[in-house]
Design brief:
Blueprint: E1 8-10, E2 48-52, E3 64-66, E4 71-76, H1 86-98, E5 101-107, H2 109-114, H3 117-140, E6 150-155, H4 157-168, E7 175-179, E8 203-207, E9 222-226, H5 239-255, E10 261-264, H6 268-273, E11 283-284, E12 295-299
Helix pairs in contact: 1-5, 3-4
Bound molecules: 2-acetamido-2-deoxy-beta-D-glucopyranose (9 copies).
One 2-acetamido-2-deoxy-beta-D-glucopyranose binds at residues 39, 41-42.
Amino acid sequence: MNQPTTYGLIALQFLFYRLTIAAPNTTVVAINTTVAAPNTTIDVPRVQYYFFDDNYHLMDENNITISGNKTLIVLVHGFRSSPWTGVVADLGKSLVQWTNSNVVLVNWSKWTQKMDYTDVVVRLPTVATHLVDWLNGLHDRGIIQSFDDVTMIGHSLGAHLIGYAGHRLNGTIKRIIALDPAQPNFKDSQKNERVDVDSGQFVMVLHTSTMFLGLREPVGHVDFYFNGGQMQPSCNSDTVCGHVIVLNYLADSLKNSSEFKAYRCHTLSDCEKKIVDNKEPTIDMNINTPNSTRGLYSVLPSKKNLKIYSRFFLK
Ligand SMILES: *[C@@H]1O[C@H](CO)[C@@H](O)[C@H](O)[C@H]1NC(C)=O
Ligand SMILES: *[C@@H]1O[C@H](CO)[C@@H](O)[C@H](O)[C@H]1NC(C)=O
Ligand SMILES: *[C@@H]1O[C@H](CO)[C@@H](O)[C@H](O)[C@H]1NC(C)=O
Ligand SMILES: *[C@@H]1O[C@H](CO)[C@@H](O)[C@H](O)[C@H]1NC(C)=O
Ligand SMILES: *[C@@H]1O[C@H](CO)[C@@H](O)[C@H](O)[C@H]1NC(C)=O
Ligand SMILES: *[C@@H]1O[C@H](CO)[C@@H](O)[C@H](O)[C@H]1NC(C)=O
Ligand SMILES: *[C@@H]1O[C@H](CO)[C@@H](O)[C@H](O)[C@H]1NC(C)=O
Ligand SMILES: *[C@@H]1O[C@H](CO)[C@@H](O)[C@H](O)[C@H]1NC(C)=O
Ligand SMILES: *[C@@H]1O[C@H](CO)[C@@H](O)[C@H](O)[C@H]1NC(C)=O
């Protein structure tokens, strides 16, 4: 990966991302590092944003450098998880290594670790507000030129979080990648309360555990059903593994963009039975799947050595 020659310099104030700042100029942006006092009347825990350099070193929070011309990828973890959870961290690292983008990992684990699942679901709009404010802040300061430069990736509850945030940004985010969006509490929810096609300009969804934890219904512009969407070959019958392995799948597709051939399946039932239409061209499931892709696809992942996928456990 090329080291960017020009950097914007920004300093982040993590609490509520309320920055006082000089107007951005060209590609170098200097931000006043004065930290505003947190608004204690707002009953919300911290959301943190971690920026990485091209060598996956965490940047000093007072000295963030991002390349003005690169796209931004925002990765959001799920319930009982954090940016430092093995598989999430691995995907973050792969994004830094294999894409030419600025990568940010969002830490909202204060919400996802202490509260009950349904409490977090109820508060999702509040967390989405943080995310939206933060993105608007980057945009207002010229750190990102437009939401056309932004890809958001979310796992499980994080998939609904970015979906919700995407609605609030009027669907302007270029690409939303929903990794096995959570099913509990979302099965019958209104489409504006979860990830759906209006969350971004292009919404791709990967389904890997539709029996219990993951949403079964197609909700994106394109929906990929891995191994019928139900049980994953590397997971035997471990449901949590099936829900989490989707992070490994996306990471694998960064390393090898043709790792996951996707075959057209015409109905959800066909996808689940792995009945595919061989007359239609196959596509590659990866972070660059063309934004014109529509409909349902079946992917048949091979069984991998479990050791490769051993970092499942959510901390
Ligand atoms: C960023 O984009 C501008 C305008 O497109 C260009 O002039 C400049 O060289 C680019 N900088 C880098 C580091 O690619
Ligand atoms: C913005 O850039 C221009 C040209 O590089 C420079 O003359 C001007 O002083 C800069 N403004 C600020 C506020 O830094
Ligand atoms: C930074 O912001 C604080 C608070 O608004 C202000 O008092 C201070 O003068 C600013 N510093 C600079 C260098 O702009
Ligand atoms: C703090 O948050 C409350 C509740 O949202 C709001 O009414 C108040 O104006 C905020 N105060 C400041 C200083 O931002
Ligand atoms: C900020 O980071 C850049 C790039 O890592 C480094 O060259 C520079 O010395 C740092 N500045 C400060 C004040 O730490
Ligand atoms: C993420 O946020 C939680 C809650 O604020 C905090 O305890 C934890 O240290 C943070 N994680 C990292 C890796 O900094
Ligand atoms: C979304 O639409 C609202 C209402 O029209 C507008 O105020 C807001 O600026 C828009 N936001 C974006 C990111 O387009
Ligand atoms: C990428 O994956 C495909 C499908 O498994 C395989 O045929 C191909 O050899 C792999 N390419 C590389 C460079 O590993
Ligand atoms: C879709 O992708 C093409 C090629 O990358 C790009 O030119 C076009 O602007 C994209 N359209 C949307 C709506 O993002």
